[in-house]
Amino acid sequence: MKALILVGGFGTRLRPLTLSVPKPLVEFANKPMILHQIEALKAVGVSEVVLAINYQPEVMLNFLKEFETKLGITITCSQETEPLGTAGPLALARDKLVDESGEPFFVLNSDVISEYPFKEMIEFHKAHGGEASIMVTKVDEPSKYGVVVMEESTGQVDKFVEKPKLFVGNKINAGIYLLNPSVLDRIELRPTSIEKEVFPKIAAEKKLYAMVLPGFWMDIGQPRDYITGLRLYLDSLRKKASPKLATGPNVVGNVLVHETAKIGEGCLIGPDVAIGPGCVVESGVRLSRCTVMRGVRIKKHACISSSIIGWHSTVGQWARVENMTILGEDVHVCDEIYSNGGVVLPHKEIKSSILKPEIVM
Amino acid sequence: MKALILVGGFGTRLRPLTLSVPKPLVDFANKPMILHQIEALKAIGVTEVVLAINYQPEVMLNFLKEFEKKLGIKITCSQETEPLGTAGPIALARDKLIDGSGEPFFVLNSDVISEYPLKEMVNFHKGHGGEASIMVTKVDEPSKYGVVVMEETTGKVKKFVEKPQIFVGNKINAGIYLLNPSVLNRIELRPTSIEKEVFPKIAAENKLYAMVLPGFWMDIGQPKDYITGLRMYLESLRKKSSAKLSTGSHFVGNVLVDESAVIGDGCLIGPDVAIGPGCIIESGVRLSRCTIMRGVRIKKHTCVSNSIIGWHSTIGKWARLENMTILGEDVHLGDEVYSNGGVVLPHKEIKSSILKPEIVM
């Protein structure tokens, strides 16, 4: 089976992290975002993954070579020369997605993390015999999204309603599709929207079915949702009683610590924390609801919450970092500094406190 | 003769422009910043220029290959693995700067633009017979800088005073030096400051002389000074009756337009404007005190002042940009948008007005 991951563009919402690496390679729970998806696809027997990209192909290609070998799966790129929307890239990658087998292929949005119940989705697709299946997820405030209106028992999709004013349903497009090759005949090689142009046609022919995603779902393409997403992800690890979660008197709630990271005495770590490879967390540090990327050093007595600390940065002694502070790569926060929502671009030194949320360039 | 240009680090003060290219390659008056200096050095017979860098050597090296050929001068890089201050890099490049001829070598700060009276400096250096010469420039508010206290008649330097509280002189270090090879014996390969450690020792031995820089001088390493620097540079072109300045009814004051740029009817351009290669300025556009980088399109009736528009950006119709608006590479401003000091990172689309100075990431 094949799969296409819509990687897209510049990842500007995840700046400053994406000033250092392309978005799919930004780590989430200590693993490049895109690797979560590729591993889940491999686990259901997908043999080839195509990445639809339009930016920094060289960086992506280097990554691919490394992981093709490690994972034993073919990974290729399909590069847009002009933006093709959410459906156009499928047409562009046509030759890679269709082989004589006639098997359906997966399409995923790259920012999405979830349980990835791909096996169940394949069975659902076979059973209904339609042309396309999409995953939908339940949300509390559907009026902000595109709602998928469907027959509850069969999952057959009636229509899509963008940002409905009256309540029409609470399921939204989760960005995970399983499509028969015939869908490609419906997509021209031009900027096209899959939600506005392609799916409504298939739904009108009663050939589009929606499956409600079990478990968690989050679009982690911006920092606030990235942090919420980590909580959901670690929660799902807890439910599976995963040994990856850290245990011990210094740990509270769900915490992921890479085996090469060092944690000093008297720390209190958690809940909802991920600490990456090679990190050094000195004694007496308090971390909650944060991601600490590879190679970061956090000095004694510092207190960090609801933040993301970028690769190879350092946070000084007694520093207090909170409220969606995002440090880019190689940022050095001096001792005793306070950051309230500072967003700091790479290669900077912070010598005075940031009292209100602002970008430091 | 040889020369060393201190290129240094990440160029963060010139972001967002330096998020796209390393600082020495940012264009100033339609030419990469560093090329102004390299051409002036070549003109007085320097055969080899060493760039002391610590960031993005690959990008710099590609640039070098291109210009080595075009200019017929040897250009090499000397890369710091740790920051070495303002003197350390000179020690690091020792082998490239000394060739046994005993000739002095130039050292320049990369952010500086000026008339580069290097021939006069060589004569001055030979005339006094000392070990080192530095250029100094007159400023109105010396208390903000490091002041060079010197004998007015001979130029012999007595001492350096950092940010003097009482008036001791109004000449500051212009960042252009001519040094005998023996100066290298005074510099250890460690982080060292040339102003605080090396020059004071040479001055104490009565071997350091200062020449007052004729003409303009500016450190263009941040946007406000970059814009002031352009004004000064174009004025110096005017004084030399340079044929490069544009003439015609559409132009007021000093304006530089690349020959491949296209300017529509009814525009009023200037004063103090530089328009780069391949730009398209549609009809009825007003530009003053701004730099338009390569490949920019400015649509009809728009008004831009005191701003820098980054490579390949577009500005919509009836837009108004002013007060230190800086657009990075590939930024697209919609029709009728107002920007009051917006600083926009690369690859962004701006659809609503920016009412007060802020960074858009």
Q: Estimate percent helicity of chain A.
A: 10-25%
Number of helices of chain A: 7
CATH class of the largest domain in chain A reads: Alpha Beta
**Domains counted in the coordinates of chain A: how many?**
2
The CATH topology of the largest domain in chain A turns out to be: Spore Coat Polysaccharide Biosynthesis Protein SpsA, Chain A
Overall shape of chain A: it is elongated
The assigned structural class of chain A equals alpha/beta
**Uncertain stretches of 5 or more adjacent residues of chain A:** none
Q: Outline the biggest β-sheet of chain A.
A: 10 strands, parallel
Mean pLDDT of chain A: 93
Give a description of the structure.
- Two copies of one chain form a homodimer.
- With 361 residues, chain A is α/β, with parallel strands linked by helices.
- Chain A folds into two domains: 1-217, Spore Coat Polysaccharide Biosynthesis Protein SpsA, Chain A, CATH 3.90.550.10; 233-357, Hexapeptide repeat proteins (UDP N-Acetylglucosamine Acyltransferase, domain 1), CATH 2.160.10.10.
- Chain A has helices spanning 33-43, 57-71, 88-92, 94-97, 118-128, 194-204, 223-239; strands at residues 2-8, 27-28, 31-32, 48-53, 74-79, 105-109, 112-114, 132-138, 146-150, 157-162, 171-179, 208-212, 217-219, 255-257, 262-263, 268-269, 273-275, 280-281, 286-292, 297-298, 303-309, 314-315, 320-322, 326-327, 331-333, 338-340, 342-344, 348-350, 358-360.
- In chain A, strands 14, 16, 17, 19, 21, 23, 24, 26, 27 and 29 form a ten-stranded parallel sheet that branches. Chain A has a seven-stranded mixed sheet with strand order 5-4-1-6-11-8-12.
- The termini of chain A are far apart.
- The model of chain A has no long low-confidence stretch (mean pLDDT 93).
- The A-B interface holds A 9-10, 12, 15-16, 19, 343, 345-348, 358-359, 361 and B 9-10, 12, 15-16, 19, 55, 343, 345-348, 358-359, 361.
